[in-house]
Backbone:
């Protein structure tokens, strides 16, 4: 019954697009409908990734889910930079890194319970996030006095972005080699074929991008209506809804008992945002009318670093435990409280 409801609710996506673009649906209603439309899309991406992972294994499966899930975020970030909203992009990047490591990983552990996870793979990626955040201090510290968007900081941002991209490629190749050396079981007979799984992922990702665009463009009006600051809207709300597909996918997969894949999705997504999405958007902004500096606020640097270090300790023994999930989720609540002050 639940699957039928989810399949049927996929119709919310075309309904939203027609109502928003064809009939000029109001921003508040667009926000609510877009948020609802992301729920079945999240389930579909999780379901397709689960089927793809039956052929590729957990490591590549987590990589695929994070990649497809972060594609809409990359598009949203580029649109925000083009609109002259660099603070929204940086806030969304911060919120994505922190929410994936703390909230999504935590909820996956709570839902999935005790189970084995690939500590070696997660350790590589969390080290990448920690090192990436440390490197972001180069443009960030000068940005704490004066404008964080001044041209001098953008000049400093360019080499930092290049180093982050090189680190991402190196860590990703090394991580895929780790999983490539493992023996995989034959896929279950009920699993979709790999081409079908990838096709569904592609279509669902495109739909997620379209829905996310509507939702993000209606967020400012929503935030002002409920009295939230632009920073809080970006770092919490935009980050959560922009990553709803992969968030939901990880939790659905954890509920099915595949903790290795669920944790890979959460951590890989965070690593991709820090080492791929952030520098890629900064470099692409070279050809846009507005540039993006990677000068983050102190609270952003602190929460990203703390999240990565805490997840490192929690996952280091190769086991997932429910109480650890509550610890991570509670830490995310503290981060949100810190963001509310700004």
Residues:
């Amino acid at each position: 019954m639940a699957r039928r409801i989810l399949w049927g609710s996929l119709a919310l996506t075309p309904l939203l697009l027609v109502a928003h673009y064809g009939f000029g649906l109001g921003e508040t209603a667009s926000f609510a409908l877009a948020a609802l439309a992301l729920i079945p899309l999240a389930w579909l991406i999780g379901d397709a990734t689960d089927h793809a992972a039956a052929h590729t294994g957990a490591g590549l499966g987590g990589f695929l889910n994070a990649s497809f899930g972060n594609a809409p975020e990359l598009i949203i970030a580029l649109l925000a930079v083009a609109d002259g909203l660099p603070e929204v992009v940086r806030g969304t990047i911060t919120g994505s890194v922190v929410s994936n490591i703390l909230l999504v990983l935590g909820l996956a552990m709570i839902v999935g319970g005790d189970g084995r996870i690939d500590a070696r793979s997660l350790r590589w990626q969390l080290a990448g996030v920690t090192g990436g955040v440390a490197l972001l201090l180069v443009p960030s510290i000068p940005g704490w006095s004066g404008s964080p968007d001044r041209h001098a900081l953008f000049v400093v941002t360019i080499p930092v972005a290049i180093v982050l991209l090189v680190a991402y490629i190196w860590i990703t190749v090394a991580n895929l080699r780790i999983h490539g050396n493992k023996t995989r079981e034959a896929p279950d007979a009920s699993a979709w074929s790999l081409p079908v799984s990838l096709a569904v992922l592609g279509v669902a990702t495109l739909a997620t991008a379209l829905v996310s665009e509507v939702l993000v463009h209606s967020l400012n009006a929503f935030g002002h209506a409920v009295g939230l600051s632009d920073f809080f809207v970006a770092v919490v709300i935009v980050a959560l809804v922009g990553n709803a597909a992969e968030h939901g996918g990880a939790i659905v997969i954890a509920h099915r008992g595949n903790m290795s894949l669920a944790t890979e999705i959460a951590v890989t997504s965070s690593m991709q945002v820090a080492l791929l999405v952030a520098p890629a958007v900064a470099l692409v902004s070279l050809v846009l009318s507005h540039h993006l500096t990677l000068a983050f606020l102190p609270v952003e640097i602190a929460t990203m670093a703390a999240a990565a270090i805490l997840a490192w300790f929690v996952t280091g023994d190769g086991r997932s435990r429910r109480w650890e999930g509550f610890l991570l989720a509670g830490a995310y609540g503290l981060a949100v409280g810190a963001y509310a002050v700004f």
Observations:
- The chain has a mean pLDDT of 85.
- The longest strand covers residues 115-116.
- Strands lie at 115-116, 319-320.
- The chain has 14 helices and two strands.
